[in-house]
Design a protein that fits this description.
With about 625 residues, this protein is α+β, with helices and mostly antiparallel strands. About 35% of the residues lie in helices and about 15% in strands. Helix 13 (about 410-420) packs parallel to helix 15 (about 445-460). The radius of gyration is 26 Å and the shape is globular.
Length: about 625
Amino acid sequence: MDNLPFDDTTDFTDADRGFVTALDPAVITAADGRVIWDNDGYAFLDAECPDTAHPSLWRQARLCARQGLYEVTEGIYQVRGLDLSNMTLVEGERGVVVIDPLISAETAAAALALYRSHRGDRPVTALIYTHSHGDHFGGARGVLPPGTEAGVPVLAPAGFLEHAVSENVYAGNAMTRRAMYMYGDSLPKAPDGQIGAGLGMTTSTGTVTLIPPTTDITHTGQEEVLDGVRIIFQLTPGTEAPAEMNFLFPDHRALCLAENATHTMHNIVTLRGAVVRDARIWSRYLDEAVELFGDATDVAFASHHWPTWGRENVRDFLLTQRDLYAYLHDQTLRLLNAGLTGPEIAETIELPPALEKCWHVRGYYGSLSHNVKAVYQRYLGWFDGNPAHLWEHPPVESAVRYVDCMGGADAVIAKARDYAGAGDLRFAATLLNHVVFADASNATARAELAGVYRRLGHGAENGPWRNFYLMGAKELEEGAGTIALETTSPEMAMALTVEQLIDSLAVRVDGPRAWDKELVIDLVITDGPPGPGPGAPPSRHRLTLRNGALTHRTAGPGADSWGPAGLTLTLTKPQLLSVLAGGGTAGIEQSGDASLLGELVSVLAEPDTSFPIVTP
């Protein structure tokens, strides 16, 4: 850290450049009066860095906490600091094109109102989603309320809708639970509490919505004109998101980088959980962006953080980010091919000095440690090749044995105190974690571990690491809290295909309870797949519960040989959603054994939205 250029204030100059006005107060509430965003809570960041925060993360938090309306270049504005992400507004001939309407409808509406208070009541004439993560589309109804979207084009990269909604089908509950720890929204905003997440401050907790795209961007070089504004697109699938895109406004000489290049090292796998990303292809798409747009760009902006101005500055920014992800990928592969495991690589690898001292590749959101483990995981999976790790006991059973071998809980706690006193907080946490998992009621171990987690959090340069440690301490002291961020909504549910809806049932089947059940149900959906318009032909889907697994088929040429189902329901997609939500079958055409639906429902488990993470 001694080599970091704290005297370089370029980022602060750029973060303030183009400032128009701030939201005052910067507190946004939901219709029920609940506060879903409070940026004023970070006023303490104006002070000098305390000993409860890493100076580098404190610096990043001060930059991310700036909020208000900013002019990027003539005709392009951003609202920053009213959610985890930025909302960008590009003025057209008749109104304004909105890019990435934040997480919540409430924050997006506030951002649009702030813009309009200084630029006039311009209508929203187009909407662009840069990629398939919720902080870039969830506030759509805040800028296009129901009934106003007719005739307004909504653009997104090919595959957007599938990826945007599928996260909520398979592992959505676990991801959302872990996201509460990653962003730390329930922590107190304070010098010893939540000071941001590196990518932004935290997540808003308002109403998540979704307006399905009307136009897909399918190839690099595709050009569109929205409200008189020319745009040239570059598809970047498999980078920061499965469906993502950069795009150039050639008449403005302004490049939108989505979330592919921001002022931090990003995640190869996010701590909330996700499919591992491809650092190799990420690097190559950044290089392609320089090749495609470098000479035509005077300012680059993203959906997080602040812009970069000047053609050479933009070029250097992108090439440095390119080099970061290439280095992470290639050096991890070099070391794993030398026989090192993921944790060993994480302890061995170092960034080149030129990258190490570069602010915009510091590990505020992603980290060198967990990113190289992600690259290892992408290629070799969870097993490190050591058979001792092939069939280990699960955490509680291992903990009981470790504590027994080390002479009991009191002896382990004493050893942990010694290690913590000597500065080895990592091993102190390991020891105390064993005691807690061996006996969750051990109040001394819980208190000691909470203290160690706090010290680790206060020393972390990475925002999510800090939040995970502090949330871990909070769980130890107060118990597991409840989820504050709801990532599903009626519009999100309607965006799911019938196949995805059935998948959402399949992952809820309690296998052992269903071992002895065997049933077949046909669903005839009369309003067809999503988006075909009136008159779409019915679709037929067969659900089979057998050996504890719920599988399904969609009718095709071989459907005539299926044989009869035990129960057939003929219904619309909204009716299907109602049935799945427990609304009953009134008004739905049925033939066969109606009790089969009840049998299926009886083996569905409800996800635990508040499961513990740092306690058994």
